[in-house]
Amino acid sequence: MSKNIRFFSIFIIGFCVYYFFDLAYFKTIENFAKNLFHSKAIAHVLAYSVTLISLVLTSKIILPKKKISDIFSLNGSVLKGFILAFIGTAPMAAGYPFHFNITSHLNIESLFINTISSAFFEEIIFRAFLIGILYRFTRLGFLSSVLIGSLLFAQVHMYQSQDITELIEILTITFLGSVLFAWIYFEQDFNLWVAIFVHFFMNLYWEIFDVADNVSGNLYGNLYKLLSIILITGLIIYTKKKNKIPFEITRKNLFIKARENQS
């Protein structure tokens, strides 16, 4: 068996084990932990941590010489990620108070789950593992790497839909959001903290203000989110051009990378 076939076979099997184990046991583990610790937030973190074991083991099997922090891109600057995300999402922070009331039924544990916990673990699973490993350690290009991961990321948000129109909106928004987070992650020297904090702040402002019941949103909710996306994208492009840093994603590596460009 060639190295490539072995790599992709173990990668696919490892993710499938994670996916079906998560599907079958995440809620069971979460409910058990909630009864044990009497905290939804702790239960959510523990359930994610247990289900992630298969991805960690898979990563070490296919990349035995790499540290876990490197594989999952957690060795970058946390502060840099926070600052860029905080500035980049300023349009949402500034615009939402003019159009939406602060959520009256705000629950601290639910807020933690929908912001910190979800942002961290979803970026680990979808951007760092499912998309990042394929792009960084194989010859697959950006679009080739991001497709399946983004489709799965969109799929896990389907439960928010109430009808077919809303379903299509949610799938489209979450798919494009996944592509955006992946691009941000790659262009920031594979610093996952940037994507984590962008994800966190976007979720935070959406949760704090009574914007909408799901990610499909509404006019002003999506307008300020779009302005934030434009600002973040502009900041990254401006900074890289100013410092003469080459872009990671170019036309030459959209589908297949040249061997010399492989991480």
TrEMBL record:
GO terms for molecular function: endopeptidase activity. Residues 110-204 form the CAAX prenyl protease 2/Lysostaphin resistance protein A-like domain. It comes from Chryseobacterium pennipullorum. This is CAAX prenyl protease 2/Lysostaphin resistance protein A-like domain-containing protein. One of its GO terms (biological process) is CAAX-box protein maturation. It holds the Pfam family Rce1-like. The chain crosses the membrane at residues 7-26, 41-58, 78-99, 111-133, 140-158, 164-185, 192-209, 221-238. Keywords: Membrane, Transmembrane, Transmembrane helix.
